[in-house]
TrEMBL record:
GO terms for cellular component: membrane. It comes from Dillenia turbinata. Residues 1-26 form the signal peptide. This is Short-chain dehydrogenase/reductase SDR. Keywords: Signal. It holds the Pfam family adh_short. The keyword Signal applies. It comes from the Eukaryota. The keyword Signal applies.
Length: 353
């Protein structure tokens, strides 16, 4: 009996680990946090740039004083299933419900008013501020927007900011990406975000504190056939903000990078696909958990994308071999508007010409 128990205990542990990994929606560190630190959000001011054309993603910052959420456009054409769909509106609703003070920003003021009236919380909708902003504006205009955002809460300023800028054209092969689409993607995903960060960081450094939460993508961690330019922009974003944290951490500046995989949006994007996707509401919740706990990096995704991220991160030779094996097949699936990463990509033996 004793020997049987010695055998069964590790087996049960192994089965539990496998079940956990199979059903996980994020990396182990993130899931172990399990809850939002409400005290990091309640009564903190949040700046949300909510640019929807026709959909949007956003950046959020919060905790010490002002939470700045910058939402930039994500272009959807031909009903392509994008790697990252994190609704600024969902994020704003969850933050408002946690008692955050919000500044929402976009080009469309009427849309901002609509969002404002739907927010409910300790400071919403009455205390929600509206600030028109286009992340692709000149640096002078961005500087004016940052100055105005900080003036809404002069006692605290912007202490925490989450970026979730995302611009994507239809999926295509790396060699078919045009110069125009490449520049458009980098202008929003990288250059606009960096400009806004640099302008805001100056004020944070004067106060000796600040926290950037960057909504990147799983495409910024692993090769993404069919989305090479988008993937390149997210790798660039990760590199910049990890470097920024290393340079400024000793001066009170923190950075959290969140990398979501396929997300099921509330309007049904991703529905009709056999690919498992994390619901947008859960993605927003996990983003806030990661930010409120000050994690340096967090992954949000179902399998098999999460497993590929682990392989590329910890066993790069195996991870890149796997991506090379399925890359051409995934590009073909993308052309047919199929799943991003169906399991059968791993087992198909069909030769490519």
């Amino acid at each position: 009996m004793f020997l049987l128990l010695l055998f069964m205990i590790p087996m049960l542990f192994l089965v539990s680990v496998l079940v956990f990994l199979a059903t996980a929606e994020g990396d182990l560190t993130l899931l172990l946090k399990n809850h939002v630190k409400r005290e990091a959000i309640e009564d903190k001011a949040s700046f949300l740039d909510y640019w929807c054309e026709p959909r949007n993603s956003c950046t959020v910052s919060f905790s010490g004083g002002l939470l700045f959420i910058d939402c930039c456009e994500i272009m959807l054409e031909n009903n392509c299933n994008n790697f990252l769909f994190l609704e600024g509106e969902i994020l704003a609703k969850q933050l408002a419900s946690l008692g955050a003070k919000l500044i929402i920003s976009a080009r469309n003021e009427a849309e901002l008013e609509r969002v404002k009236q739907q927010l409910k919380g300790k400071h919403a909708p009455g205390g929600v501020r509206i600030l028109p902003l286009d992340v692709k504006s000149s640096e002078d205009m961005l500087a004016e927007a940052v100055e105005k955002a900080e003036s809404f809460f002069p006692d605290s300023g912007v202490d925490y900011m989450i970026h979730n800028a995302a611009h994507e054209r239809p999926k295509t092969s790396a060699l078919d990406a045009t110069e125009e689409s490449t520049k458009a993607t980098f202008n929003v995903n990288v250059l606009g975000t960096i400009s806004l960060t640099r302008l805001l960081a100056a004020s944070m450094l004067k106060r000796g504190r600040g926290h950037f939460i960057v909504i990147s993508s799983a495409a910024g961690k692993i090769p993404t056939p069919g989305q090479a330019v988008y993937s390149a922009s997210k790798f660039a974003l990760n590199g910049y903000f990890h470097s920024l944290r290393s340079e400024l951490y000793q001066r009170g500046i923190k950075v959290t990078i969140v990398c979501p995989g396929p997300i099921e949006t509330y309007n049904g994007t991703g529905s009709g696909s056999t690919e498992r996707r994390v619901p947008a509401e859960r993605c927003a919740e996990l983003t806030i958990i990661a930010a409120s706990h000050g994690l340096k990096e967090a992954w949000i995704s179902n399998q098999p994308v999460l497993a590929v991220m682990y392989l590329v991160q910890y066993f790069p030779t195996i991870g890149f071999w796997l991506m090379d094996k399925i890359g051409a097949k995934r590009l073909e699936a993308v052309a047919k508007k199929g799943n991003n990463y169906p399991w059968n990509l791993l087992f198909s033996n069909k030769k490519r010409t």
